Amino acid sequence: MEQFLIPANSKKSMLIFGLFRPFDLGLFGVGVGLTLILLPILPVTEIMYAVIALLPALITGFLVFPIPNYHNVRTAIMSVWKFYTERRIYYWKGWCFSNGEEKDNK
């Protein structure tokens, strides 16, 4: 009988740098790119404009930050959203379900 040992982190080899999916890096790249575009456009000598210019990179960086038990913050937020917006009442349709009708066994 052959037994195979699969390492616990075998899925990490499918990720870029062992942490990111291509979409995550694309999202972060768009945020950093938008920040780089906003920095020369806005007068960053004022603190409010500097914060506004840095917000895209900070927000996308927060979304792709890895956390335990989820891939990253973005997937955790998506799971919470699905939990609260999708149907949470499940009706039993198993082998003994009769839709309230009694079956005549004659």
Briefly summarize what is shown:
With 106 residues, the protein is mainly alpha-helical.
Structural category is mainly alpha
Task: Tally the beta strands.
Answer: 0
| Largest sheet entry | none
Q: N- to C-terminal separation?
A: 51 Å
| Global morphology | flat
Overall mean pLDDT stands at 83
Low-confidence stretches: none
Query: How would you name the oligomeric state of the polypeptide chains in this document?
Result: single chain
Proportion in helices: 40-55%
Order of secondary-structure elements: HHH
Radius of gyration: 24 Å
The DSSP helix count reads 3
Strand content: under 5%
Question: What would your notes on this structure say?
Answer:
With 106 residues, this protein is an all-alpha fold. Helices cover 47% and strands 0% of the residues. The mean pLDDT is 83. Helix 1 (22-41) packs antiparallel against helix 2 (47-63). It contains 3 helices and no strands. The protein has helices at residues 22-41, 47-63, 73-85.
